[in-house]
Amino acid sequence: MTVDEKYMRRAMELALNGRGAVKSNPMVGAVIVHNDRIIGEGFHCEYGKAHAEVNAVNSVKDETLLPDSTMYVTLEPCSHYGKTPPCAELIIRKQIPRVVIGSLDPYPEVAGRGVDMLRNAGVEVVTGVLEGELYELNRPFITAHMRQRPYVILKWAQSADGFIDKIRTDASTPAVVLSPPDSMRLVHKLRAEVSAIMIGTRTAILDNPSLTVRHWVGESPVRVVLDRALTIPSNYNILDGSVPTLVFTAKKAEKRQHVEYITIDFEKEVLLQVLHHLYKRKLISLLVEGGSMLHNQFLKEGLWDEIRMEKTAGLLHEGVHAPDLTKISSSDRGEQRGRYIHYYNR
User: Which of 233, 261, 302, 346 could connect to 253 by a Cys-Cys bridge, CB 3.0–4.6 Å?
Assistant: First the structure.
């Protein structure tokens, strides 16, 4: 392991502290080193607040050491004014002579400009250190900006014989509970880490879910639901206004507290319209929780990046079939850990 890799790994460790708190921003860590000794550390703690580079600089007790130091940062420093001033500008102002960057930022307003700004100011810039591992760290952020749509995670639990529920005709019959309590905590942890969460009309009507974070610490994602004819009862949980909610429909409806109705053309590519709208709102990751028809549509159109499937030991013998994975490429097959199987769309 090289010296640069050593300190970049420390920056990666710091970056992970922002998981679930930065949402539409990437997780970023920064380390400042003087004479092979760390003198400053920081990470991006919360969306809209100071970036990792700023927090690292602010943690340095003796700033006179900065002109003889190296900053290690997992992602290219920003060069534009957003919710915070440009980090590249701060590095130049503090006269840090060398910056080691893990990966370039795919966000159009940065995309190499941070590196250019630093180099034009005479800063020595090294890029690509542990780039592959850092891609995995911020896979949703990078994928979203490369594909101009949210990073899509499909999630469901299925019985050992391939069913996700029994056949139900109305909300009076409860859904089959396939997952144990520890799975519920993991589901809510995942909800806290994504920007948005989506279900279809039938799931909304039969399950009346809240789609909020309750069994984990974190902010609830923006709720997204398809309701072409506005058939979801107005007193249902998903329309209670407790969390920002987007309803995609073919009809016109007035916006109410935290519930916005967005009219789209259901005769055209519905999912692409939804994903494009979410991306424009900077919702860079989407968790799809059901139902089977919605999952199959995402799979059919190839609009997915990750599948998290839980295969439980119980048998249902009949019911609603689990989403069809028979056409998943062998190169997309991920790993199995216990009852959990992950797939990645490579």
Answer: 261
Query: pLDDT of 268-310, one tens digit each?
Result: 999 999 999 999 999 999 999 988 999 999 999 999 999 999 9
Query: How much is the average pLDDT of 316-341?
Result: 80
Whole-prediction pTM: 0.90
Known active-site residue 53: yes
Q: Which of 5, 41, 53, 289 is catalytic?
A: 53
SS3 of the chain: CCHHHHHHHHHHHHHHHHCCCCCCCCCCEEEEEECCEEEEEEECCCCCCCCHHHHHHHCCCCHHHHHHCEEEEEECCCCCCCCCCCHHHHHHHCCCCEEEEEECCCCCCCCCHHHHHHHHCCCEEEECCCHHHHHHHCHHHHHHHHHCCCEEEEEEEECCCCEEECCCCCCCCCCCCCCCHHHHHHHHHHHHHCCEEEECHHHHHHHCCCCCCCCCCCCCCEEEEECCCCCCCCCCHHHCCCCCEEEEECCCCCCECCEEEEECCCCCCHHHHHHHHHHHCCCCEEEEEECHHHHHHHHHCCCCCEEEEEECCCCCCCCEECCCCCCCCHHHEEEEECCEEEEECC
